[in-house]
Amino acid sequence: MTCSVEGCTRDECSRGLCRKHYDMVRYHGRIVKPVQKKKLCFMCGTYFDVGNQAKDFCGAACRMRYMRAKRKGNAPRRGLNKVITTEDVFKPEPVEPEPVTMVFSNADVLAASDGVCVECYKLIDRSGPCASGWLLPLEAGGEPVLANRVPLHIACKARWEARTANGRARKKRIAGKRRDA
Predict the structure, then answer these.
(1) I need a labelling partner for 37 at 20 to 30 A (CA). Which of 9, 47, 57, 131 fits?
(2) What is the dihedral of CA 171, 173, 178, 181, to 10 degrees?
(3) CA dist 60 to 73, 81, 122, 155, Å?
(4) Which domain holds residue 11?
């Protein structure tokens, strides 16, 4: 019988696997696929397979070009070329999604709340101007939803935005205790 791994034609040793694949399962817990390593050629700038990490050129022609350039004194520096895997070469650049910010008017925020400024705890006049701010700023991981917006007096907005996220959380805990009492 042959090995049960696809593409392997060796004779079976144990559990339907050849000696090589059986040892991989013994030592690693799974069949490990060899990682193909690539390196950038100094002279032509193409990626080539690396059998030996000391190899710096894709072939004899590039090596000869390097030797000629070295004799003339204008050869590129060697030793800075690291070995990379095929996943590194062909990995697409990660794209960050655009942040989605929902737009709420200050009137929407005031209508959704109890009408009390979260900075000074005074009632906000619903007919007059008001401001609103983020309970947890978007930069700190807050979500752009109406529940994350809080009503403020216009005069209180600058003080509110100057507070840190920890200070806001502390102030919110204190406010909850005051309302319960």
Answers:
(1) 9
(2) -170
(3) 20, 18, 81, 75
(4) 1-33
pTM equals 0.36
DSSP annotation of 16 reads: T
SS3 62: helix
Whether residue 26 is found in the same domain as residue 43: no
pLDDT tens across 125-162, in order? 888 788 888 887 777 777 888 888 888 888 888 887 77
pLDDT at 104: 77
Q: Residue 9 carries which DSSP code?
A: -
Can you read off the two tokens belonging to residue 6? 């696809």
Same domain, 59 and 110: no
Q: Are residues 111 and 159 in the same domain?
A: yes
Is 116 within the bounds of a domain? yes
Q: How far apart are CA 130 and CA 160, in angstroms?
A: 13
Say which DSSP state 58 is in.
Answer: S
Residue 175, in any domain of the structure: no
Rounded to an integer, what distance in angstroms lies between the CA atom of residue 168 and that of residue 118?
9
Distances (CA, A) of 26 to 2, 4, 16, 134, 152: 19, 16, 14, 55, 65
Q: Which two tokens stand for residue 11?
A: 């004779």
